[in-house]
Design brief:
- By secondary structure, the protein is an all-alpha fold.
- The chain has five helices and no strands.
- Helix 1 packs parallel to helix 4, helix 2 runs antiparallel to helix 5 and helix 4 packs antiparallel against helix 5.
- The chain is rod-shaped and about 130 Å long.
- The chain starts with a helix and ends with a helix.
Length: 182
């Protein structure tokens, strides 16, 4: 091969390899752009959904805590805890009195927000959720005892009064602790 022919072959090869490498660069750039767009879009969607869930959890916790504080106010205004103390004092002072009638007309919907949202309680911070559930379980146990037709319809015994008093005291303590989370 003459030097001129060799030069023509080298020029042709260099042109062909630069065209192929330019095609790969275009393909890699296109794939890289598509991948970057997909990742950014996915991350943005995740961030938006995460923020939405945090706002929902915060609103849910606030509404459940506010309902508890409203129930606490009703309990204080109606002096339920003090009335249990009076029943306990009476039953201790009069041992021949086996029980004292005790009833309160409490509607089924006394805890509407909790009843309507308890299936979402898992969204809330664990410590707050535990307190909210504990408060409602304690209060519901008391309501079952003192509602019309409840356990104490035929009379509240000293043991029953003391048990419900302890539950009332614990529920009110939980309500006070939850006040700081508003």
């Amino acid at each position: 091969m003459s030097p001129e022919e060799l030069s023509l072959v080298l020029i042709a090869l260099s042109k062909q390899s630069s065209v192929q490498s330019n095609e790969w660069i275009t393909l890699i750039a296109a794939l890289g752009g598509a991948l970057t767009t997909a990742l950014c879009g996915g991350l943005m969607s995740y961030q938006i959904e995460y923020s939405k869930q945090k706002r929902t959890a915060k609103c849910l916790a606030a509404s459940l805590i506010l309902e508890i504080l409203a129930l606490k106010t009703v309990i204080e205004q109606r002096q339920y805890v003090e009335s249990f103390e009076r029943v306990i004092s009476y039953l201790r002072a009069n041992p021949d009195a086996e029980s004292v009638p005790y009833q309160a007309d409490i509607p089924e919907h006394y805890s509407r927000i909790y009843q309507g949202q308890c299936h979402n309680i898992g969204l809330i911070e664990k410590d707050i959720a535990i307190k909210i559930i504990s408060f409602h379980q304690l209060l519901d146990a008391i309501v079952q005892d003192i509602k019309l037709g409840g356990t104490f319809s035929d009379g509240m015994t000293l043991e029953g009064a003391e048990e419900d008093f302890r539950m009332f005291t614990e529920a009110m303590k939980i309500a006070k602790e939850l006040e700081s989370h508003i």
